[in-house]
Write a structure and sequence with these properties.
Helix content: 25-40%
Bound molecules: zinc ion
Number of helices: 5
Length: 167
């Protein structure tokens, strides 16, 4: 028996000599280097030339979840946007339209930047994102369109961003 119950059986893992530290400590983007080309089985994004992009996977491409789909699968957002204040209740459809539009534009160019989920409450909404960039940009888009107060906090350890916007 190998050491499964202990959970530390590394005997079958190939040695990875080319472990590569990136500046941004996002475990979902640095945990492993994907072989090229790789296609994500969930969203069909293709990893090629060092980045994930939309496209047609070449025949024989490896299959591996992209960082965005891995986060969705694990339910681990890279960013949170909390919206608070009476303005939201009064302009909900308008705000959600702006947020969705913004996501569509970003996702077109950056497949890893997506909305994960939207939870509405009486006081506002919390939106989760697969990419910290989109969370921040969405908060800035709200402020640019409607003023209000924007607050952005990064946590380096978790590679997460918490954005809150209120008006
Ligand atoms: Zn994917």
């Amino acid at each position: 028996m190998t050491g499964r119950p202990g959970g530390r059986d590394t005997s079958h893992q190939p040695r990875r000599d080319s472990m590569y530290e990136e500046r941004v400590s996002d475990p979902y983007r640095t945990r492993e280097k994907w072989k090229e080309p790789t296609v994500c089985p969930d969203c069909r994004a293709v990893y090629h030339k060092g980045r994930w992009a939309w496209g047609v996977a070449p025949q024989g491409a490896h299959e591996h979840r992209c960082p965005a789909c891995a986060r969705i699968h694990d339910k681990v957002p890279a960013g949170f946007l909390t919206i608070k204040g009476s303005f939201f209740g009064e302009h909900k459809d308008e705000l959600m339209h702006l947020i969705r539009n913004h996501e569509a534009n970003e996702k077109e160019r950056h497949p890893l930047e997506r909305i994960m989920g939207i939870e509405e409450s009486k006081e506002g909404a919390t939106i989760t994102f697969t990419g910290s960039h989109l969370a921040r940009k969405t908060g800035e888009a709200l402020r640019d369109a409607y003023q209000g107060a924007l607050d952005i906090k990064f946590s380096d350890e978790d590679a997460q961003v918490r954005v809150s916007w209120s008006r």
